[in-house]
Design a protein that fits this description.
The protein is an alpha+beta fold. The protein contains 8 helices and 4 strands. Helix 3 crosses helix 5 and helix 7 packs across helix 8. Bound molecules: zinc ion (ZN).
């Protein structure tokens, strides 16, 4: 099931025809007819996805770091693209613990919807093609944190999200 999620994300990135990172995730969401709204939620709440009169809405915690907000948008976009029937009947609310790479033993390990949304987000923000290209352009030591931090910065994701992706590429 998360293979399908990855394929969906991959297809979206292909359509963008991106030559270099970062992936413009908010612009992409808007191009898909999604409204992105920022609110100062409690720290525990990363974001949510729901329908308002048929329009998909992504709520993002404006107090979080911009890189985290990007991951939230990508994750919620995954719910909108992959789990539309759920949105027809309910609001999807994401506590930080639903996200990689917060806590590997938590919700993301068990709830298939969260696993799929995370796989989608990871693929969307960190497309394999762009990662390989970035590694080829500036080769370095993958065990060197400074090197990885510089790469994560180019993709505008957290270091942990980048490391997670490298292990799953
Ligand atoms: Zn979720």
């Amino acid at each position: 099931m998360s293979e399908f999620a990855k394929e969906q994300a991959c297809a979206l990135v292909e359509k963008l025809g991106l030559k270099a990172p970062p992936v413009p995730v908010e612009k992409l969401a808007r191009a898909l007819g999604v409204r992105v709204e920022y609110s100062p939620f409690d720290d525990e709440l990363s974001g949510m996805a729901f329908l308002r009169e048929g329009t998909p809405i992504i709520g993002v915690n404006s107090n979080h770091h911009p890189n985290r907000q990007r991951f939230t948008i990508a994750h919620e976009l995954g719910h909108i693209v992959l789990h539309r029937p759920h949105l027809e009947t309910s609001v999807m609310i994401d506590k930080s613990r639903n996200f990689i790479p917060r806590d590997p033993t938590s919700a993301q390990g068990t709830d298939p919807l969260e696993i799929q949304a995370n796989a989608f987000a990871s693929e969307l923000l960190l497309p394999a093609k762009l990662i390989r290209q970035a590694l080829a352009e500036r080769p370095g030591d993958l065990n060197d944190d400074d090197y990885l931090i510089a790469l994560a910065k180019r993709f505008r994701v957290s270091l942990t999200a980048f490391q997670y992706r490298l292990e799953n590429i």
